[in-house]
Design brief:
Blueprint: E1 35-44, E2 47-57, E3 62-66, H1 73-80, E4 88-93, E5 96-97, H2 103-109, E6 111-113, H3 126-132, H4 142-146, H5 150-168, H6 188-200, E7 206-210, H7 218-235, E8 238-242, H8 246-252, E9 255-260, E10 263-268, H9 270-274, H10 277-284, H11 288-294
Parallel strand pairs: 3-8, 3-9, 6-7, 7-8
Antiparallel strand pairs: 1-2, 1-4, 4-5, 9-10
Helix pairs in contact: 3-5, 3-6, 7-8
Length: 330
């Protein structure tokens, strides 16, 4: 189906108000996974970025994708959201193929994402950043907005109510007094929260979070772990997470998938995957027997006896820290 086959009437209903996400276009309810990657492959010339990857995400499930740098994790997100077109295989969302669809079409079908690097509108207010995400669901034309005609005013009220509802989900961290502040005035962790809020304003069925805890201190990491669980429990979304911090992965995941050089090397619960020999070797470059014989090295402080601990992935040195929140609401 081409992009033109997805009309406005297919997308999200007649208004943008409320937090219910069940009316998303193209969504086929019922049993079965919400997202399916079927033998998905992607090549850049002679470089094989993904190789026959199979992955499933069920409704209201949290699945984490882990792996060393260059494993293909973000590439998976880029294929799902239409940034890259797969070389082979298929991507199905709600039972229908979305492989090769344009990103804006994928977003309107009910998939939202965040990025490793923040993509906020820094000179816009916190509230405006969230309101901007609803543009694809509005129907008023430019001249109606300029002349402040009734439909444009009504949609603006609905969009503002939706944005306020989404921001209220984040409690004091994005409280009402912050709504009119520019995004650049927020702490690093609150900018991360704002990006998640903006994605949530599209009322997704599936939320893709790319390293949501990157650069956060332990207290902030704990908060983001709890937030991911609440997004599933209270907002009813399925979540696919890319994360290096094993505290987050172990604390929120129903299932974990490990990649290495575009190939799935392990899948299961956190403990099973973290102790899988192929996963340990992917991070350390040596097999578990060699680790046992040579004894623990300082660079292996983040590992359990045979696998990854929840203190992180296999650290080879201190990780880069981004600015953290000050004590208090921050």
């Amino acid at each position: 189906m081409s992009d033109s086959d997805v009309s406005d009437s297919d997308v999200s209903g007649s208004d943008v108000s409320g937090s219910d996400v069940s009316g998303r276009a193209g969504w086929v309810g019922g049993s079965g996974p919400i997202l399916e990657l079927d033998r998905l492959s992607l090549s850049f010339g002679g470089l094989r970025a993904l190789s026959e990857l199979d992955l499933r995400v069920a409704e209201r499930e949290i699945v984490s994708v882990i792996g060393p740098n260059g494993a293909g994790k973000t590439t998976v997100f880029n294929v799902i959201t239409g940034v890259y077109q797969p070389s082979a295989g298929d991507v199905r969302f709600g039972g229908q193929s979305i492989a090769g669809r344009q990103p804006h079409v994928v977003a309107r079908l009910g998939i939202a994402r965040t990025f490793q690097t923040l993509r906020l509108f820094l000179n816009m207010s916190v509230l405006e950043n969230v309101m901007a995400a609803t543009y694809g669901d509005t129907k008023a034309l430019a001249w109606e907005s300029i002349l402040r005609l009734p439909r444009a005013r009504r949609e603006e009220r609905e969009v503002r109510a939706l944005a306020e509802d989404v921001l209220s989900f984040f409690g004091q961290r994005l409280a009402g007094y912050r709504w009119d502040q520019p995004a650049y005035s927020l702490s690093y962790a609150n900018r991360r929260r704002l990006e998640i809020a903006r994605a949530l304003a599209t009322r997704p069925r599936l939320l893709l979070l790319d390293e949501p805890a990157a650069g956060m201190n332990p207290a902030e990491t704990h908060e983001i772990t709890e937030l991911i669980g609440r997004l599933r429990d209270e907002r009813g979304v399925a979540i696919l997470v890319i994360e290096h911090d094993m505290h987050v992965v172990g604390g929120c995941s129903d299932r974990v998938v490990a990649l290495d050089h575009g190939v799935k090397i392990a899948e299961g619960d956190f403990d099973e995957v973290a102790n899988h020999p192929a996963v340990v070797e992917a991070y350390l470059g040596r097999d578990p027997a060699a680790l046992t014989q040579s004894g623990p090295a300082p660079s292996e402080a983040g590992m359990s006896e045979t696998g990854l601990s929840e203190s992180g992935t296999s650290e080879t040195g201190p990780s880069e820290a981004a600015p953290s929140e000050a004590a208090g609401p921050g």
